[in-house]
Specification:
Layout: E1 3-8, H1 14-24, E2 27-31, H2 50-55, E3 58-59, H3 72-89, E4 92-96, H4 100-108, H5 118-127, H6 131-141, H7 143-146, H8 154-167, H9 171-177, E5 189-192, H10 196-213, H11 215-226, H12 238-245, H13 251-276, E6 281-283, H14 285-296
Parallel strand pairs: 1-4, 1-5, 2-3, 2-4, 5-6
Helix pairs in contact: 5-8, 6-8, 10-13, 11-12, 12-13
Length: 298
């Protein structure tokens, strides 16, 4: 099995390239995207269409409901599943997505976390009814580590509370003595770049297309089913549409706001990718296609 990763900003064309390469080089695709992992969030996530999904088997898509929380563990599970499938079926593997934080975490590795006893879980659940008090307690125990976690970050506070209650060791000390073990190894990473003006135009076109496809109705139905509390409901495209549904912005302002926020996201993604990865190649689509083909043909 050969594997590669394609990263790049949103709307850069990496998903199209991944599909093309997968069809030509007998590969499965793992999508690492913070919204495509959710069922029912189809338009807002700009996930592959049903016809595209039927051409190549994808993992990391439609795995969770919108009121569930995706984490790096979710994508580790997906990677393990697709890797086993690729080996079994003698296929290659292409990892693609804009949420490259998850890819970075899997390449760098994670520290081993202990299994939590039923008593630990019960104690944590009882304490988490007062999230602020949990954060205050943990920060007093481990100010260095908890200084990186905001008082409203319920997911990370819960994880650190469980770890401390189970081990009675401050999180920073635990992670110092339990060094990360990589999940993904021997995976060349290629970054797809695109001219900023072209990218902005693509983002605007995609935003208008999402509106025509029924983004507003999709978000209204998601709100009816799941409310506004889940993390998935705070994503770009959804958050702005909720403001439109509240009557705070007009439809034209909705389109402009989504376009602007998506462009800002693209810039953050470009900065992260440039600073966090040891790239095997970076450039426009023709260059990255050639680089990827050289690996997959070996």
């Amino acid at each position: 099995m050969k594997q590669i990763a394609l990263i790049g900003s949103t709307a850069s064309g990496k998903s199209d390239l991944a599909l093309e390469l997968a069809l030509n080089y007998n590969a499965l695709i793992l999508s690492i995207d913070s919204l495509s992992i959710y069922k029912e969030i189809d338009i807002a996530s700009a996930k592959p269409t049903s016809s595209e999904l039927s051409l190549v088997e994808h993992f990391g898509i439609n795995r969770l409901y919108p009121d569930e929380n995706a984490s790096v563990i979710t994508f580790i599970d997906e990677y393990n599943r697709i890797r086993d499938k690729a080996v079994q079926d003698k296929k290659n593997l292409i990892i693609v997505g804009g949420s490259s934080f998850y890819l970075k975490s899997m390449i760098d590795g994670l520290s081993k976390i202990p299994e939590y006893s039923p008593d630990t879980i019960a104690r944590a659940n009882s304490m988490l009814t007062d999230l602020s008090a949990c954060h205050t307690m943990l920060k007093a125990i481990d100010p260095l580590y908890m200084g990186k976690i905001t008082p409203s970050d319920s997911y990370r506070i819960e994880k650190m509370l469980l770890l401390y209650l189970e081990t009675n060791i401050p999180p920073s000390e635990w992670f110092r003595t339990h060094l990360p073990q990589p999940i993904i190894t021997k995976c060349p990473v290629f970054e797809l770049k695109i001219d900023r003006a072209v990218l902005r135009e693509r983002i605007a076109l995609r935003t208008n297309k999402m509106i025509r496809m029924g983004l507003i109705d999709e978000v209204a139905e998601l709100e009816r089913l799941y409310g506004r509390v889940p993390n998935s409901m705070k994503s770009i495209g959804i958050l702005e549409t909720l403001e439109f549904l509240d009557g705070k912005i007009t439809k034209s302002e909705l389109i402009e706001t989504i376009t602007t926020h998506t462009a800002q996201l693209a810039k953050r993604q470009q900065t992260f990718n440039a600073n966090q990865f040891s790239l095997n190649g970076s450039g426009e689509v023709d260059k990255i296609r050639a680089n990827a083909e050289a690996i997959l043909l070996q």
